[in-house]
Amino acid sequence: MDVMELIALKTFEKVAKEGGILAASKQMNTVQSNVTTRIQRLEEELGTKLFYRKGRGLEMTRPGRILLEYVDQILQLERQAAVAVRLAEKGAAQMKIGAMESFSATHLPQLLGALREICPKLQPRISAATTAELVRDVLDHKIDCAFVGGPVDNKDLITIDVFRQELVLVKSAQLEPADNLVLFREGCSYRNKALQWNRDYMSNQLVLSELGTLEGILGCVAQGLGVTLMPRNVMELSIYRNSLVCESLPEDIAQVPTQFIQHRSTPRLKVMERLFDSLQWLPVQNKTA
To answer: Where would one find the signal peptide in this protein (predicted)?
Structure first.
């Protein structure tokens, strides 16, 4: 058997995950005929069909599903090898770090500052998203690691507890709040806690309203447009803090762990180790807050 080319494996992965030739060609910025040819050559090389047609899309055959498991590992190793070589040659590397917005606003800048002190040539690429989106991106190897709201339970992920956040009920300090529960969009771990609180502890269910940013939510709450659940330190650092008050919540609602996650198949590079080392720079009071 000839040696399988990386470009063929990357093409196979895109077709498998996008479910079709057209979508894969758009993702890879190439024409459909190139994608088709690479898949055909890979099938000839392996002596088996990797896809069969289903409606307008493609479904993987059993050999295709088996191959995908190995391809994910091969391509992850290829990406990590490239980073390791750049790090060895230049003393610098890119690192894609994801974080939920509350962590980005309160802890990530200080953590990255500490990390840059011990690894000055590190080039972090930051993306903020919901916990659900970040978990998916780590599983798909789109980012190297992430800080999420836990608990996260997935056999393919390594999780490390960083500290605990205390969620509080946040209201306007001057105005009687409307019967609205102002939340992040679907996928946020704090949203799930807020929905649990609304279901289990409110005799009259609040109407749900969604916004996409911390300050947007807290600004609306400050104007009496509803209430929200938010980490205490996030509220205390908000530009609206003088217009807000908070109340403690039941223990089963209030305590939310912040966790560091990375894919279990990701080789531990030195830059990763330095990120773990830099966790000690987080404010001591937030380790248990």
So the answer is: none
Q: Does domain 165-255 have CATH number 3.10.450.50?
A: no
Radius of gyration of the chain measured on its C-alpha atoms? 23
Per-residue pLDDT band for 287 (boundaries 50, 70, 90) equals very low
The CATH architecture to which 88-164+256-286 belongs is: 3-Layer(aba) Sandwich (3.40)
The band of 179, judged by pLDDT with boundaries at 50, 70 and 90, is very high
Query: What mean pLDDT, rounded, does the chain reach?
Result: 85
Domain boundaries, the chain: 6-84, 88-164+256-286, 165-255
Q: What is the CATH number of domain 6-84?
A: 1.10.10.10
Reduced 3-state DSSP string for 133-162: HHHHHHHCCCCCEEEEECCCCCCCEEEEEE
